[in-house]
């Protein structure tokens, strides 16, 4: 059974690697953003609680997030293992997650930190564009969106209304996002490093090379 935690700042490639690893190992890649959106959409008890904090412009408390994660890990597709994309983000969350995993009978296989220079992260994030309907991701430099500005993703065929730049990918906000990540998440590297679980990989390499190195770390 594989229980993998993917770390790395915004723009490091966690989403890309999570999707590849899901296909390779046949286990789900789970992000807190997806969990929140699904719980709010479905109107679950914890989803209603989370929505109240979100509507008030407040952070969702750790106990609510951990409850949502525990619910998600109870679903059948996670029984054989899973990938956590970008969670935990603080020491308190890591300690709470350890309790959740213990109750579910899981143990962390590896914690992989994708390391990318700040300059490259800023370039990646400010170049990113997304479909306003299905969320398909493009990059104005390496994977330009269709000239007409509509999503042509064959997998979704959603014909979205347009390709947009997310507010948090704009130059004026990217630097702050990276500062917050460094402040909150850097201590976690020591937390998992002390437990012999951490592997740091150069996330600036090609997606294929990063994937090969991640799977080698998993064994």
Any idea what the radius of gyration is?
Answer: 18 Å
CATH topology label: Rossmann fold
Contiguous uncertain segments of 5+ residues: none
Helix amount: 40-55%
What is the string of helix and strand elements? EHEHHHEHEHEEEHEH
How many structural domains in the coordinates? 1
Structural class: alpha/beta
Bin the strand percentage: 15-25%
Mean pLDDT: 88
Going across the major beta sheet, what is the strand order? 2-3-1-4-8
Summarize the structure.
The chain has eight helices and eight strands; from the N terminus they run βαβαααβαβαβββαβα. It has helices at residues 14-25, 32-42, 45-55, 62-73, 91-104, 118-127, 171-193, 207-218, and strands at residues 2-7, 29-31, 81-85, 110-115, 128-131, 137-139, 163-164, 198-202.
Report on the architecture of this protein.
It contains 8 helices and 8 strands. The chain has 219 residues and is of the alpha/beta class. The chain has a 5-stranded parallel β-sheet. The chain has a 3-stranded antiparallel β-sheet with strand order 6-5-7. Helix 2 packs across helix 3, helix 2 (32-42) crosses helix 4 (62-73) and helix 6 (118-127) crosses helix 7. The chain is globular. It starts with a strand and ends with a helix.
